Amino acid sequence: MTHYIQEDAFITWRVAQNLLDYGIIGFNGETKASASTSHLYIFISCFFNLIFGKEYFIEPLLIFNSILFTIGTLLLAHLTLKNPWHKAIFIFLISILPPSIKISILGTEYGILFFLEMALLYYGFNKDKKWALVLFPVLIIFTRIDTVIFLGIIFLVDVFWNRKIRWKYVLGGILGILSVLSFNWLYFGEWYAYTFTFAQNFDHFLTNFGNFWGMLKLPGNFNPVTIITLIFELLCFIYLIRQREKRNCFLWMIFVFGWMQQIIFISQNSLSDLYYWIPQLLLFVPVLIFVLEQKEKRNLWLSLLIVFYILPMAVFQTMDFIEKGNAEWNQHSRTSLSPNTNTSNPSKS
């Protein structure tokens, strides 16, 4: 309704179209360039483009992303809850959070990525399927190379928790890293380099964590909503891990990952909103589990969650989408069409 698709999705889709038109992965025609960070999503976008056509592939692809994200939430529910009704409510509650809406319907690769990461935890570490420990790390890294943070945190928590190394998982990680780096080097001839001093990293973290750590952004650096939410998430996490449950290992995995990814990305000047969707979502999981498993005054807790979190978030999200949609539809499209007007010189645009 708001004509809003994340601009990164359009970058990937243009690269996918160029791959079909020219047989070249790149943003500008026949020029090779790793313009999109998600190689796997380029190939998936190509497939949908090929099947449904250039003008009709977006809606089926968004549906596909949403279905995979929903399956990912189901797998996460299996990892953290036992009661079927709790799982059903959990899937609903987690799916209406702002990051979930963005992950599933804004066209980026994060719906696919969330599914792959939860499938790794469920089939690889919960069901101990050897094929999953090898296959999913390769697909995850080929989706985004920065997922080495996720895979590394999972490895460390698993070794600490089970006092053993899953060598199949190590193999999967090595194959994943080798595959994407080899692809980038052989196809694009590129390596990635980025330098920032510790002082710059720390200063950047202090300046931005209030807005990029939480789901709700406010003007200025200090964001009390984020602080309150973080404290409540931490308290719920501590409450849950004090119980002797098999799921505690997975709670540690997702919670430590949520903190570490955001610390690393914020300190490294990564201010695109999409980098924080999955961590924001996973950090909020203990809150939902805590509310669902309250045997006394459960309805009160659910009411408080709805009144003080879900409804305000829905209002904010609606305003956010309308504002972004207006910007994408009116400003960006007008800019892209300007070279064809009589008032501008196409050769200088």
UniProtKB/TrEMBL annotation:
Q: Does the keyword Membrane apply?
A: yes
Arranged from A to Z, the UniProt key words for this protein are: Membrane, Transmembrane, Transmembrane helix
Q: Where are the transmembrane segments?
A: 63-81, 101-125, 131-157, 169-188, 222-242, 249-268, 274-292, 299-319
Q: What is the designated name of this protein? A: Glycosyltransferase RgtA/B/C/D-like domain-containing protein
Which species is the source of this protein? Answer: Chryseobacterium lathyri
